[in-house]
Amino acid sequence: MSPGQAREQTFDADPAPRTRLFTVPGVGAGAPGRRSRARTPLGRTTGARVPEGSPGSLHLRATVAAAAPHQVARGRSGPGLLLRRADLREAVREGREGNLVLFVVDASGSMAARQRMRAVKTAVLGLLLDAYQRRDKVGLVTFRGTRAELVLPPTSSVEAGAARLRELPTGGRTPLAAGLLRAAEVLRVERLRDPARRPLLVVVTDGRATSGTVEDAHRAAGLLAGVAGVVVDCEGGHVRLGLAGALATRMGADTVRLDDLTDLAGMIRERRSAA
């Protein structure tokens, strides 16, 4: 039986483990959440700025510092401080935002052949639980056979994501390029719908492409360069080809091995942001 004709299988998942925290680099301005750094109305004060319109929360120290050098020129002769509108400074506050976490999962026969799909589902369930706790939106793209499918449009319902993942059948060839192209299209549409919500792309694959070529996949990956991403390397066995790592390099993404992600001893390590 050829890989393209391999029968479909469905694998259960183990209980979701605690997982690492992945973040979007830089400072955003999206919906309040608990994942990536963002400028928010609440949170700790990190600086001051000249307000563009009516000032928000006044930064008193910065306002006084802006006004102080001009007191003589303004004719101040007694106590108190002469203020002008140009002196006003508003507080810049930093908190956390929720992101759009888009999962792109290889559901091809090669994942089932090495009995990796149970571990994949376990890892992604852990990431879904993390997304729920951090008030993210989540979406799920899967690819197998000859095409990719958006099985869960971006939503705040992490329960729906978990249900779709548990029901996900596995089998057929690996159309990696199609999966990445579908992800790029989903992100394009979501950027128009909710431009303030920054995306985090999680690609779960061993980097193989048996429908299309690796070169096709790398060209598709180039469309995702600049999007904060993580490639979960599912390659197993003693001989490792490093295809997932090469794909991550093309995307400009981080790489984490599946076995490390599902380690129940689990370090929870925040990826440092290049702010």
What percentage of amino acids are in beta strands?
A: 25-35%
- The gyration radius over C-alpha positions equals 24 Å
Which series of helices and strands comes N to C?
Answer: EEHEEHHEEHEHEHEHEH
Structural class of the secondary structure composition? alpha/beta
What is the general shape? elongated
Please give the alpha-carbon distance between the first and last residues: 51 Å
CATH H-level homologous superfamily name of the largest domain: von Willebrand factor, type A domain
Major sheet characteristics: 6 strands, mixed
Instruction: Report the total helices.
Output: 8
Which fold name corresponds to the CATH topology of the largest domain?
Rossmann fold
- Low-confidence segments, given as residue ranges, are 1-6, 10-17, 263-275
User: Under the CATH scheme, which architecture of the largest domain would be assigned?
Assistant: 3-Layer(aba) Sandwich
Regarding CATH, which class of the largest domain? Answer: Alpha Beta
| Assembly state of the chains shown | single chain
Average pLDDT level: 80
Report the strand count.
10
